[in-house]
């Protein structure tokens, strides 16, 4: 995560998050964004949002992925099976495979705002059609019913 942030810092990357980011040299640290009042504004104002999956989400589907896409914002994400199963590369978001690939794609999408906006809009449509909290809740109930944990 630190290597990614430092690699993108020369491209104008700003970091919102816990105070651990504040101590990195050359980092434009902006503090924590309150989930209920500031996060969506930060996401929407960001030209290229970057997903760096945390170890606590080994399958890759962290809530932030859905939040960014639901905001209609552009997302570059590392490749993980759970994300790839839901979102098409280059259509609803864009995957990167290495630090060099991430930097190259960040430069490309910063220079091509119309292409970036089209992908972001498609990602938002996909989330609203199939991946809202209501969709997740229905799926949880289906799984619980299928395994006999809930009455049918």
Structure notes:
With 152 residues, the chain is mainly α. It is 47% helix and 11% strand. It contains 7 helices and 5 strands, in the order αββαβαβαβααα. The strands form 2 sheets. The protein has a 3-stranded parallel β-sheet, sandwiched between helices. α1 packs parallel to α5 and α3 packs across α6. The longest helix has 18 residues. The radius of gyration is 17 Å and the shape is globular. The relative contact order is 0.12.
Unreliable spans: none
**Largest beta-sheet details:** 3 strands, parallel
Number of helix segments?
7
The radius of gyration is 17 Å
**What is the CA–CA distance across the termini?**
44 Å
How many individual β-strands?
5
As laid out across the biggest beta sheet, the strand order is 3-4-5
Strand proportion: 5-15%
Helix content: 40-55%
**Average predicted confidence as pLDDT:** 89
Question: Which key phrases capture this entry?
Answer:
152 residues, mainly alpha, three-stranded parallel β-sheet, two-stranded parallel ribbon
Concise account of the structure shown:
With 152 residues, the protein is mainly alpha-helical.
Chart the SSEs and their pairings:
Layout: H1 2-8, E1 14-16, E2 28-31, H2 39-45, E3 49-51, H3 63-70, E4 75-78, H4 81-84, E5 94-96, H5 99-111, H6 113-130, H7 133-146
Parallel strand pairs: 1-2, 3-4, 4-5
